[in-house]
UniProtKB/TrEMBL annotation:
Keyword Signal: yes
UniProt keyword terms in alphabetical order: Signal
Protein name: Cip1-like core domain-containing protein
Species per Swiss-Prot/TrEMBL record: Actinoplanes campanulatus
Signal sequence annotation: 1-28
Pfam families noted in UniProt: Polysacc_lyase-like
Residues annotated as domain Cip1-like core: 168-253
Amino acid sequence: MRKLIAACAAALVAGVAAGSVPSSPAGAAHRGSCTRDLLFCEDFDRLPSGGPNTLNWGVDTRNGILTVERARHGKHLHIHTVDNGRAFLRVDDFTAPGTRFFGRMRLRVDAFPTAPDWAHFTLVEATGTGSPEVVRPIGGQYAPTVPGTFWGIGADGGPTGDWTEWRESAPVTEDSWQCFEWSLDRADNRISVWIDGVANPELTASTTDHGGNDVPFVLPTVDTVKIGWQLYQPNTTPTEFNLWIDDIALSSTRLGC
């Protein structure tokens, strides 16, 4: 019996040391639980339906709109863009303690682009001071050579250039709710991504391991985070894009799904 108890205790300690995320509600921020310990949180439930009406975040749009809509349980944010438009919820004056922060959102995309070739889209973008890199931890690209549309980390505006490292191990899923998590860590300039609670080791980047020019990739000290949708090339198929986002949170620790 003592050996069994010791083994269980060792397994528990190992799980905590590995940074495992509890599956219980206590281990994640769920709908309606925007607590004070989060760096930013928006579940849209307390906002009036219609156009955004809040002082907690701003809006960045071109050929796109944001609408708070009532759902079966609570509310969510509907994002609609035309062609290569954009529509973002914008978190300004963001500050994360230490070198690392985590993000989480729930997402459903009606349809992803299948034209033009190499159509590139972004759903999360982070910028700040200390580095000109425009960091895109959640985004993707249509690859006509496969063919298919895949998730991929990317960046632009800095020494590494404009790049998106899409991965065939991460195909997109249309018209289905999914949970996306990401982390940015300036200690080794690492980006990590989880989809529905599962890490994809290929969806990572770091100082020397990234998809851009052969120079060090350096993360900024992030002070602005944008969450929404932008597609960069014109003449798209489909001609319009619709997605729904809910349960957005930024935290100093991983939240889980």
